Records
---
Amino acid sequence: MRQTFSRLWFRLVRRIGHAGIAGAVALLAGIALAALLPQLQRDVRAAAAARAAHALAAQQRSLARPVALSPAEVARAYVDGFPAMSQNAADLVQVFAVARNHHVQLAKGEYQLKSDPGAAFVVYTATFPIHGEYDALKGFSADVLNALPHVAMDELHLSRDNAGSTALDAVVRFTFYYRSL
C-alpha cells in the first residue's frame, strides 16, 4: 500500500510538478471555502445579534431603578445572613478540627450563651487557654476566623514564661453570632 502511494505521488509530481499540486490544493480549498461561506456568514450574523441583545439587556438593567427596601427589610435581610443557633455544635466541631490541624491542644474551654428576649442575635462565647508555638496559635486563630465568618475573636492574650522560650501561653476568646429564631 505504501509503495503504491509512493509511486502515484512521484508520477503526479513528474506529470504536473510541485506548482501544479499546490494549485490543485489551493483550488480545492477555494471550493471548500465557497461552500462554507454562507454558513460562516449566518454564524457571524447570529453572534452579532446575540452581542447586541446582551448589550441592550445590560443597558436596560443599568437604567432600571433598584427596589427601595425599608430599613426594617434591610435589617431583616442582614440578620437572615447569619446561621441559626442549631449550627453551634457543628461550628465547635470545626474549631476543634482546625485546632487539630495546627497541633493546638484545646484541653478545656469556658462557654457562655447570651440571649436577650427580643434581640436579633444569640451570642455564644468560647474561651480557650492554649499552650503552644506562636505560628501554630496564629494559624489556628486565622483559620477559625476564615472558616467561620460569623465568628469574632474578642480576646487574644499571649504570655511567655521567659524570654528564651519559644512556647507561649495564650487565652483566645471567640464569639459566635447566631440569629434568634
---
Amino acid sequence: MRLAGSNFVIIGRAGMDLYPDPPGTRTEEATMFFACLGGSSANIGVAITKLGGQAALVTRVSDDAVGRFACNQLDHYGIDRRHVRTAGGEARNSLALVETRVEDHQSVIYRNGAADFAMEMEDVEAVDFSVFDALITTGTVFAAEPSRSATFRAFDLAKAAGLPLIFDIDYRPYSWPSAQVASEVYSRAGELCDVVVGNDVEFGFMAGDYAQGLDKARDLVANGAKIAVYKMGEAGAVTITPEGEIRTGIYRTDALKPTGAGDSFMGGFVTGLAAGLAVQDAVLQGSAAAAMVVARVGCAPAMPTRADLDRFLKHHAGPTTA
C-alpha cells in the first residue's frame, strides 16, 4: 500500500506532559519539571513533521494557559492548527506527569473533563479533507461524546474524499465508561479503516479475548483492511496484508523510559508508506523511530528528524530476528 503523499490530517488530543527533572527522578521527589507537548495525536503530528511530512490537527483545547501552551507547541513544531478550537466552561486539557525511568516507571494522567472530548460535528465538517492524503486517528477520541460521533462523521467525510483511514488503537481503559463499550466502538472503527496499528493487548481487547488478538488483526484484513500491524514489544511485530504476513524484529537501544514509542512508530511508518517504501521497510522505519524515542527525554522533543533517523539506521547493527 502506498499513500498519495505525506500531508496528514490527524484527529485527537493535544496536551501537556511534565517530566521530573533531572532524568531518573521520581515524581514524588521532584522539585523541577520539564514541560513539553503531549497527547498521542499531537505527538504523531510532531513525528510526521520532523520526518519531513505535513500534519494538521483537529481537536479542542481548554480556554486557558495550558490550552495556549499546547497551541504554541503545535506552532513550534509546524503543525497546522487552523482546526484546533477552544472548549470553555470546566473543560481542561490533558495533563500527564511522566517519569524518565524504566524501572518502577510511573505515569500519572489527568483527563477528567478533557477538552478534546468536546469536539463536535461542526469541527470536522469545517475540514476540507480533499487537500489531505490520509486521515489518522487514535483510539482516545472514541472514549466519550461528542468526540466519538464527530470522529465517525470525519471517517465518512474522509472516505467520500478518497482518503485512506489509519487507526492507532491506543486503548486507555481509564478513559472509557466500560470495557464492553470500548471493545464495541473499537471494533466498529477498525472495520472502517484501511490501516490498523496496535499492540497484542489492544488487538486482544478488540477481539474480546487476549489470546485472539492476532486472529482479530487477520480478520480485519480479511474483511477489507489493507494493513494491520500487530506489535508485540520486544518480540517485534506481525504485519498482515492481503498478500500475506511479514514478521519483523526491533532495534535494540538503551531505553530511558517506556513511553512515546507508539506515537513515534506511527510517524515513521506512515511517512515511510508515503515515501513509497515497501510495507516491511516502512514498519522497520517505524520501529527504528520508536527505539530512538524511548532512549531520549520527553516525547515530542524526542521525535527524530529525517537526518537523525538516517544516521541511526546507518550505524545501528540492525533489527533483531523476528
